[in-house]
Design goal:
Strand content: 15-25%
Number of domains: 2
Number of strands: 5
Structural class: alpha+beta
Distance between the termini: 59 Å
Oligomer: single chain
Largest sheet: 5 strands, antiparallel
Shape: elongated
Order of helices and strands: HEHEEEEHHHHHHHH
Length: 242
């Protein structure tokens, strides 16, 4: 009978796993093992509502685990993740980060989540004064070029024109979602921009795609929440794409 109990446990775990997939939940843990400025980290954490705190103290170190929910859906491409960090406060090392996010609302996966997280910590001085995002993610350097910024300016003008004409973000999304499948893939994205008289060279579009869909081809299309987040980001003239 023991084997029946064992099989039942396995079946329950598998059903729970399938349930998680159906709900669109993604959980990712990434090992970092990177030097941090603990004072800057503590200052940053004061801006977050910490949900869970745990710590382990031994003879030569104090390790802490903290969990919070992010609040800026646009920054996280449509949905806010739950974030857990594990760090050695004594030796000033960030050991790992854990993300949980709804993939039905956000286009981000492991690469995109980590990119936003690294940028967020870097911009807050947690990784030191010499932090350079373009060195962390070389592919992002192209998106920071004057060429791409010029493209984004043209995109912003086109979207602002649609807003001024009374178009909602949902109407924009439907205009880009040519096949009505509920998502905008790279081909539809380019065709949609061309329909707004915004054209790109292949080099421009490759760099732009890195901004709009950083996890492509793992994530093949933008769902409505992620599309809306990107539109809002483009329309915000104060937004920095770095």
């Amino acid at each position: 009978m023991a084997w029946l109990s064992f099989m039942s446990v396995l079946l329950l775990k598998y059903m729970a796993y399938l349930g998680t997939l159906a709900l669109g939940a993604l959980s990712v843990r990434v090992s970092l093992n990177r030097k941090i400025d603990v004072d800057k980290l503590n200052a940053f954490l004061k801006t977050r509502a910490i949900n869970v705190t745990d710590q382990t103290i031994d003879a030569d170190s104090c390790r802490k685990k903290l969990t919070w929910d992010e609040e800026d859906a646009d920054m996280w491409s449509g949905d806010v993740p739950t974030i857990e960090i594990f760090y050695d406060e004594t030796h000033a090392f960030l050991l790992s980060v854990y993300f949980q996010i709804d993939t039905k609302k956000s286009s981000l996966r492991e690469k995109g989540l980590l990119q936003v997280f690294i940028q967020m910590f870097g911009n807050n001085g947690i990784f030191g004064d010499d932090f350079d995002l373009s060195k962390e993610f070389p592919a992002l350097a192209a998106a920071k070029s004057a060429l791409v910024l010029n493209v984004l300016a043209r995109v912003r003008t086109a979207f602002q024109g649609m807003v001024d004409d009374g178009n909602s973000t949902l109407m924009m999304f439907r205009n880009f979602d040519k096949d009505g499948g509920g998502g905008v893939d790279p081909e539809e994205l380019r065709e949609g921009f061309e329909g707004l008289n915004v054209t790109f060279t292949d080099e421009e579009y490759k760099a732009l795609l890195g901004v709009w869909m950083p996890d492509y081809p793992e994530v093949e299309e933008l769902a409505m929440p992620a599309f809306e987040a990107q539109v809002n980001k483009v329309l915000d003239v104060s937004q920095k794409w770095d």
